[in-house]
Each structure stands twice: as C-alpha cells, then as structure tokens.
Amino acid sequence: MIKIAMIEDDLELAEVLTQYLKQFNMEVTNYEEPFLALSSLKMNKYDLIILDLTLPGMDGLDVCKAIVKNFDIPIIISSARSDITDKVTALQLGADDYLPKPYDPRELEIRIKTILRRFNHSNIQEDEPVNKIFRLDNEKKEITKNGKYIKLTAAEFEVLSLLLKREGFIISREDIFENSDILNQDYESSGSLAVIINRIRHKIEDNPKEPQYLHTIRGMGYKFIQ
Question: Which pTM was predicted?
Fold first, then answer.
C-alpha cells in the first residue's frame, strides 16, 4: 500500500482524490491544517505528499520548505495559483512536480507513479482498477460497461468520455463545449446537449429517470460517479 499525505483545505476535492487514488493501492490521509500535517510527518511514514499552496495559517511554499528541510519525501504541488513565480519557487525549494488546478485525477495518478518510480518504490499498481464498471479505450474509441460495448454516436462518445476522464468532478456545459471537436454553441442554444445527456443515460443507466452514474448538478453542470 502506498501511503500519501495530502495537505488540502478543499475537503470536497480531497475526498474525490482520496476515493480515486484508493483504486490504485494508494491510501491518502488528508490534513486540512498545515501545522497538523507537519506534526504528523514526524510520527508517520508517508511515501509522497500532495501539497496545496493556499492554506490556512501557513503559506504552502513555507510548508514545502519545511518538509524539504526536515524530511526526505517527494512532493507534488497541487495548486490553483497560476503565478509562474509560485511554480518556479516551489520547484527551486525542492518540490518534485507542480500540477495546476483544475486537473484530471488520472493525471495526478500518473504523476504519482512516475515520481515513485524515480524513488525506486516497489509497490506501484500498474493495472487499471478491477472494480471499474465503465472503461474508456481512447485508441479504439470505445466505452464499455461491465465489459460490454456501449453503442454511442460520435457526440455521445465525446461527452461521455470527457465525463469519465474527469470522474468525480463537476463539468460545466462550457467545459464540454470547450473540449469538444464536434459540439458547438448551437448545441447549447438549441438544448441539444441536454438531449445528448438524456440519450447517454438511456444507454448506461438502469433507470434513466433516477440516474446512478451521470448526475445533473443544478446550475453547475454534470458529474459522473461510479
């Protein structure tokens, strides 16, 4: 089991990442308070740290500096701060990677594995989690449910694949259009995106009127959970 300490005051994000990484043999302990996290590092052994920069009581860069000074643990900065100075400073202080928010949890997973390989970590689970109901194969442009191929139109595949890649996160309608090669604003004005979502639900849900996987978050967009 890979043990990760996360220092993140966004509890919803921390929970999403904790549940996602759990599938890959990664146990995440989140600390909302940086001082509590630093104290815990003295008593517990972790393989890696995921560190936010905007924290209560102590700036994340100062936390990074303290960790590098006192512990030999790889650090991934996970931050919404877009100033290039913060990124450069964090890396100069000794952080191993810098991941700007928002990001796909899959990218975080890959970066964790890449860093741990450099640290010669032997307990890295490479295979996809076996308990996934839905699987996306980008090369074949296919999505399966419990191993069975789901027949989708090009627009349906594009929307569902984006939701799967960002599983657990709310995806706004604007994000869907910005990341689409097929959809455009005409879909939004005509309400066709809602039609596509409805068609997808009829293909993946046991009861489309009470969706288990593809949820509408009123006023915000859509979230996929499995």
Answer: 0.60
